[in-house]
Every structure is written in C-alpha cells, then in structure tokens.
C-alpha cells in the first residue's frame, strides 16, 4: 500500500510529497520529497514546454537553471504536463521524449486538480483524439509511462469493453444483470462508459449504453457531461444523439466551459458547431477566466474552428480577464495559422493587456519565425516599438532574454522593428500639414474684436 499527499499551493510555496508505504517484505517506508513551486514566466520551463520549444527546454536543464522537480506555482503541474498541448504539433513529441527519457520527470505526480500526465496522455490514446489521428506519438509516449490503461483508470468491465481494452460484445454483456448494473458506474475520475463512448465518437456503443439505461447527465470530476465528451472528441453523431435526448447545451463544467467551448479547445472539427449553435449554444460565452471559444481555438491553433466562429459573428476583440485578445493568445501559443486568419479579418493591434504588454511584446517572447513573417504584412505603423510594459521592458528587451533563437529569427524580428520605425515620406508630410493646420486654428483671432 502507498499513500501520497501534496500540500496545496495556497498553503506552501513548496510542494511536500509525503509517501507512506509498505515494502514487499512488509516493512514500513516513509518518503519525503520537497518540490519548488515557481511562477510561469516568459522563459520558464512551463512556457517553453507548452510551446514545444525543445532547444529552450534543453538549455534550461543543460545550464542547470532549473530542477526536474519543479511544479507550476498556480496549478501544481510538472513541465511534462504542459507538453500535452504541444503534442498537438509535431515538435511536441520531441519535448515529451526529452522530459521523460533525459530529465526523467515522474508522469504520476498529481497536480492540484487531481490529474496526472499519465492519465492525460492515456485519455488521448484511448479516446482516439486529434493527436493520434495526426500520428504525433501519443501511443509511443504512453508506452513509456505505463502499459495498462484499465489499471490507471480503475475501469469496470463495461468501461473496458467500450474502450476496447478488453474483448467482448457489449450489447450481449449488458443483458446480464451483474454487468448491467455497471452501466452508470464511474472510473476513478468520474467518467462513465457512456462518457468514454462519446469521447471516442462511438455512436453504436453510445446508443447501446443509452438503451441499457445510461444517464447522459452524470458529471465527471470536472463537471463535464457526455455532451462535453462528444464535443471533445469532435463526434458529431454522438452530439446529435445526445441533443435529441435533451442534453443541456448551456451546461458549464467547473472551469465554466460549455460543450461548444470544449469543442473549440479540443479539436479542429467544425461539424459539431452547427449542431450546438442550432440547439442554442452561444459562440461568445465566456468561461471562468473570460476566455471565449475563439480564444480557445487560438490557443491550440484550430484554424477551421476559428474561421467558422468568425463567420458566425464571434467577437474578434473580446479580451479575457487579463486583457488578452484572441490574437494575443494565438501569438503567445505559436498558433500561426489562426494568427494569420485573425490578421486577415482585421484584428486590432493597438491594445495592451493587464501587464502593460502589447502584441509586439508577445511576438518578441513567443512568436515563431513564421509568425514574424506573417506580421511583416500587417499595418505595423500603429505600434510603438519603444512601448514599455509594467516592468519597464520594451519588446526589444524581451527578445534579448529569449532562449535559443532559431536561425533567421533575430533578422526577422529586427525587420519588424524597422518596419514599425520607418515612416513613409508622404505619411510624415500629411502629419506635418495636419499639425500646421491645427496650429493656425489655435492662433486665429477675429480682427474686429
């Protein structure tokens, strides 16, 4: 037996892992491990892992700037946990393998929300999510973490039949009273067999489960229902099935996300959006952090979803509670395709977020080479290259602190600055003429007075 406890972030700035266990010789064992909880800053391991920046991540460890045991101050997550986002892109697999093979981060560390990396990657594998369809290696990564999906989830026999970790015929099995009683039982994270059928897009099994008495309103630990699961999996047929049964399209999970927001965050499949909107879903609903579906699509670079939302009237400028617009999020998270779409749709550039940063600051610290090339075609004269954020840093200052820069990036960034600082002669003449006219108006007086 083994029991572990990690103190929450509000109690300590360090995580103390206390492990009480019995060895195979029945001797007691007490273990104590202290982990630093550090904030997520520009060049932090968390930000670099989230972006799939292997050169940056490896530099931090090679130069001993960071410990393998650090946790995110606000979430309790390891750097490996953030790679689950980067795996959406080809370069993310390399970062995940580096953190597992070289740094040897423990994938079973439980974060403040009760999740582990092992469960996150396993969920992607058995749900047949977009990651696996694109072949970026979730199966390979999970094989390094664990070997038995059923064991880490605590699946019932019905769960196993649904996710195909056990072989058998679901419909005939449910005719047996003992197994029929399992139809609404949950795994260790509160997910029913119906939830898994929907996230996998398995309409046939979902229909069988519903006929056997499955309850589509049961919520998992995160407050998500089967409709959220179907939305996450981009499963239009399952969404339609659940909506016909009266599923609540406006139900929000613990993070304030509706099924539509979950869909925008999880995949780039637009087929389900018409179904959800026609059922009353809103394209501009915000979660607990002020994030909209468009901003979620921007974070994960889902261009088809972003384009669909914009065509349906989504607010292109809606900021979250930190002042970040969808464009800022797209640049921040290296979502180049969505960045291009937002710029083509006229997304504003002259805004500041809560920490005083401009879009140029975001480009400086997070923008890819492709992102910088995209912005070279934007109306940059509206930006101020010398604008300082709340710490007094300009975009140029932030760029200097950036960890290993890919070949050509410095030249591209300098071209951006040059374009901002260059003023066309005719523009300057027009401004001078306007200033002279204003001065003449100010100096005008009536001779009869």
Descriptive report:
The chain has 449 residues and is an alpha+beta fold. The chain is 48% helix and 6% strand. The chain has helices at residues 45-51, 54-62, 79-86, 90-103, 117-126, 130-133, 138-145, 149-153, 157-163, 170-173, 177-180, 193-199, 203-211, 226-232, 236-244, 259-266, 271-278, 293-299, 303-311, 326-332, 336-344, 359-366, 369-375, 395-401, 409-421, 425-443; strands at residues 2-6, 14-22, 28-38, 71-72. It has a 4-stranded mixed β-sheet, with no helix packed on it. Helix 9 (157-163) packs parallel to helix 12. The longest helix has 19 residues, at 425-443. It is globular and about 90 Å long. Keywords: ANK repeat, Repeat. Its EC number is 2.3.1.225.
């Amino acid at each position: 037996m083994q029991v572990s406890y990690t103190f929450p972030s509000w109690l300590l700035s360090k995580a103390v892992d206390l492990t009480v266990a019995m060895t195979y010789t029945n001797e007691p064992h007490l273990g104590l491990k202290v982990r630093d909880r550090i904030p997520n800053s520009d060049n932090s391991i968390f930000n670099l892992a989230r972006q799939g920046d292997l050169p940056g991540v490896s530099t931090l460890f090679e130069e001993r700037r960071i410990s393998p045991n650090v946790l995110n101050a606000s979430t309790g997550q390891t750097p490996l946990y953030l790679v689950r986002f980067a795996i959406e892109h080809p370069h993310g697999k390399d970062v995940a393998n580096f953190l597992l093979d070289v740094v040897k981060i423990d994938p079973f560390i439980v974060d403040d929300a009760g999740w582990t990396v092992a469960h996150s990657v396993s969920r992607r594998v058995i749900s047949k999510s977009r990651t696996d369809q694109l072949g970026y290696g979730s199966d390979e990564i999970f094989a390094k973490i664990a070997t038995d999906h059923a064991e880490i989830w605590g699946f019932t026999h019905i769960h196993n039949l649904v996710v195909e970790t056990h072989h058998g015929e679901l419909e005939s099995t449910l005719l047996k009273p003992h197994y029929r009683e399992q139809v609404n039982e949950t795994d260790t994270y509160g997910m029913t067999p119906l939830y898994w059928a929907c996230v996998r897009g398995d309409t046939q099994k979902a229909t069988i489960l519903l006929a056997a008495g499955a309850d589509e309103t049961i919520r998992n630990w995160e407050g998500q229902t089967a409709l959220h699961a179907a939305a996450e999996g981009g499963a239009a047929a399952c969404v339609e099935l659940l909506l016909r049964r009266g599923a609540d399209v406006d139900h929000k999970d613990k993070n304030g996300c509706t099924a539509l927001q979950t869909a925008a965050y999880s995949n780039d499949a637009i087929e389900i959006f018409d179904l959800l909107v026609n059922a009353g879903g809103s394209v501009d609903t915000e979660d607990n952090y002020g994030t909209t579906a468009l901003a979620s699509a921007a974070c994960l670079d889902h261009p088809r979803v972003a384009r669909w939302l914009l065509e349906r009237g989504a607010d292109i400028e809606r900021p979250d509670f930190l002042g970040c617009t969808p464009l800022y999020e797209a640049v921040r998270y290296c979502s180049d395709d969505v960045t291009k779409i937002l710029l083509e749709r006229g997304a504003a550039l002259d805004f500041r977020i809560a920490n005083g940063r401009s879009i140029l600051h975001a480009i400086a610290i997070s923008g890819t080479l492709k992102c910088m090339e995209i912005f070279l075609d934007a109306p940059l004269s509206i930006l101020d290259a010398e604008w300082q954020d709340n710490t007094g840093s300009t975009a140029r200052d932030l760029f200097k602190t950036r960890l290993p820069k890919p070949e050509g990036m410095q030249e591209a960034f300098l071209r951006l600055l040059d374009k901002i600082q260059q003023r066309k002669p005719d523009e300057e003449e027009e401004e001078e003429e306007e200033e002279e006219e204003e001065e003449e108006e100010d100096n005008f007086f009536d001779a009869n007075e």
